[in-house]
Specification:
170 residues, alpha+beta, Immunoglobulin-like, 4-stranded antiparallel sheet, 28% helix, rod-shaped
Length: 170
Amino acid sequence: MDKTIVTAFMVIISVVASVLVFNSLYPAIQQSSDAMVVMKSRLDDRMKSQIEIVHASGELNSSGSWQDANGDGRFNVFIWTKNIGSSRISGLDRVDLFFGPEGDFTRIPHESTAGGSYPYWTASLENDTNWNPTATLQITIHFSGTLASGRYFIKVITPNGVEDQIFMGL
């Protein structure tokens, strides 16, 4: 009889211990699984996103002198960036733009966060209403004065971390 009671207690203790272990491990496994799904989704988004800076130029005429091409009275640099990936890129105002002389570039804020100070950038889509695959985004960097001639670095980074960079001459 003693062995039966001890065996019954051991079975009960084993079941309780199994339930406790399950209750403590299952949420951790579930949370880890959710994190893996989110990570896969982000990785998939990055793999489907791709951009390419196709052209960049300043408001200069053929002799290299400043020419107000768009009539705003300010010196501007124009950058055309194409979505060559297979997914739409959203959050255009959250794009990071780095620009400046080679070795001395800085992040240029979007017009919405520049607080009215120069330089800042604006964007417009050339051939679509969203930055869908094959659409081209024209980025205009607005300056308070002209830039010195030389070699300039441009880097565009989308909100999901996809980037492209080039050097341009002014």
